[in-house]
Amino acid sequence: MTARILILDMNADMYHARLKRTFPTVEFLAVHKAADAEAGIDSIEVIIALGHHIPNALIAKAKNLKWVQALTTGTDTLTVPGVLPPQVLLTSTRGIHGPQMSELAFMNMIALQRNFRKMQRNQAEAKWEQWGQPILEGKTIVIVGLGLLAEHLAERCKLFGMTTIGVSGGRGTAPHFDEVHPRAELVKLAARADFLMLLVPYSPDTHHLINRDVIAAMKPSAFLINLARGGVLDEAALIEHLQAGKIAGAGLDIFSKQPLPPDNPLWKMPNVIITPNIGGRSDRFVEQTMRIVEPNLQAFLDGRLKDLQNLIAH
Asked: Any idea what the CATH number is for the domain that residue 138 is in?
């Protein structure tokens, strides 16, 4: 089987070079921007791209589209009814983002509880000031969402001597967790957290899952960290509680509106760490995604559709 494949990514050239070596007879169109794919989209059968970077309008013009390989774990922008025709297959790169997501989680936890932003401000002013340095050992992390990313993070939290509590919409147990509870107990669990970590996928069921009641239950010494999706968190409620000093701070990598508008009060809060949606990125990202993209492409070309990894219903 042959196919015409669109690679839409900032690293499209790297993907193209590697895939062309493995699949020399396949025709690839490698572009950095969706607008550059418009001319040849009619004949495209496969799109390889970050899920949230594929415009709905481009998909609508891809009349021969058979498969979308998302380079992301999340595919919520593609599973909205009406975006992908029912016959188009959809796969993700679920399972490859563990290292970078866990490291960003630890960066936030350590920097927030040690008040690293204050250290940076003191450094800029040549100000020598010491204070007690909290450690992760003995702290409790409540992780909302129990997928592979959560398992990866929980395993590393145990190495730091932390208590790990999972919150799931379906699972009753998970590796590396001391406890697993249903979402119905979220308010009670938030009250136990030193760190409330959001890793849950976005869906209608998880819209504002972390609402005013959940945030209000948190301890004044606790931190909220969102590495999930913007819609999972009620940002207005979070801002209100931060401004009132009712929680200690927050680490945010994802927002309901991106880029985060310059007038959003979160930018100027001294106890908030903002990162520009980089949680899934790494300096080895192409290599990481290829662990799934290459075997999936081979299975597609061979007609072995049942062998596609991370197949997602839509």
From this structure: 3.40.50.720
